Amino acid sequence: MTSLTDIWPAFGLTLTTPRLRLKSVHDADLPALFDAARSGIHEPGRSPFSTPWTEVPAEELGPNMARWHWNCRSNTTPESWTLLLGIWHDGEIIGCQDIGAKNLKVLKTVGTGSWLKQSAQGLGLGKEMRAAVVSYAFDYLGADVAESEAAAWNEKSLGVSRSLGYELNGSYRTNWGPEAEEVQRVRLTKDAFKRPDWTLKVEGHEPWAKFLGLEQQQR
Questions:
Q1: Between β-strands 167-176 and 145-151, what pairing exists: parallel, antiparallel or unpaired?
Q2: Domains and their CATH numbers in the chain
Q3: Which pLDDT score, from 0 to 100, does residue 45 have?
Q4: Is-above-0.90 flag for pTM?
């Protein structure tokens, strides 16, 4: 009998680190993910996100999160995709790590973004989940470059980037919500990646890679 994973291979992908499991967010996971976000991600009025999605009322936050996850799925093609991976720690979903690319077979570049609820911050989990998706991109998807960005004041995010070997890659000024922000770009190459002292466990890669047209990529 055909399974949901057969129809949508991204649902079968799981990345496992010593403390975390990263896997696609199913609709049934959205309520728990909403509760994690509603519990608090940052100080009030100090949003680290280009769109201040966490600062809307709770009655708007849930529908907005659901629409974002559905939108990313519906717009996924082999040429342009964003994969939203829930972060599970000790059996609880505590945040989300995304990885995406456009024209990956040619550009060999991925972008990432993430969030963790406040009670899970300061434990090194942000570094561990970023290392997981970067390892996956380099070793399984054939990427040569991983890019990210953060507000120039967001030392936590930039510190994670530095610890993994990212280099500064220019900055720009834009509006994040109603305020102007200086945004710092960062860039990591495969050779510069400061690999963790653990090996990433990957399950469900082959169907997802086939969907992306990357089944011939060599690890």
A1: unpaired
A2: 4-144+197-212 (3.40.630.30)
A3: 63
A4: yes
